Amino acid sequence: MARFDALGLVVTDMAATVAFYSRLGLGFPAGSDGEAHVTKRFPHKRVRRVSNGLRADSVENFLVALPLVFNRQQAGDLNATYHFTFHGDEALEATVVIADGAVQVATGSQGRADVHIRADSRTWIKFLAKEKNIVWESIRGRVKVKGPLALLKRFAACFPA
Questions:
Q1: Which domains, ranges and CATH numbers included, belong to the chain?
Q2: Whole-model pTM?
Q3: Residues 31, 159: contact at Cβ < 8 Å?
Q4: How many CB atoms lie within 10 A of CB 35?
């Protein structure tokens, strides 16, 4: 099955193009490889950081979006396996492996996890939308993390918002 992953544009006026897509809420998230390219290609311009515009409305869409927003430069030397177990409105399990500058997402729990995240699906989506605080939701028992929090932080850095 074919899947739309990216769109390439060739433009004559980069400033106008960036301004247009910024008004739409799209652009170059902080720390993205796009930011490095823009800085190098247009050293006289100021980089405007905006959200990547992708907002998951389900945990299934969250998992589908991971390879699309993955930043290999931020991943660096990270080699870790993450298991996600979602319950509530949308019950599912998934494995995310980040290794050798690449990300792989699979259904089910596969292999040994370095970090295991268990979360209520609705709470997780609200956390991604910055409507919920993960610390407070952990206290309330809606999100549980087993494993080094430093690896969870490295995971988050690989997917700029």
A1: 8-53 (no CATH), 59-157 (3.30.1050.10)
A2: 0.67
A3: no
A4: 19
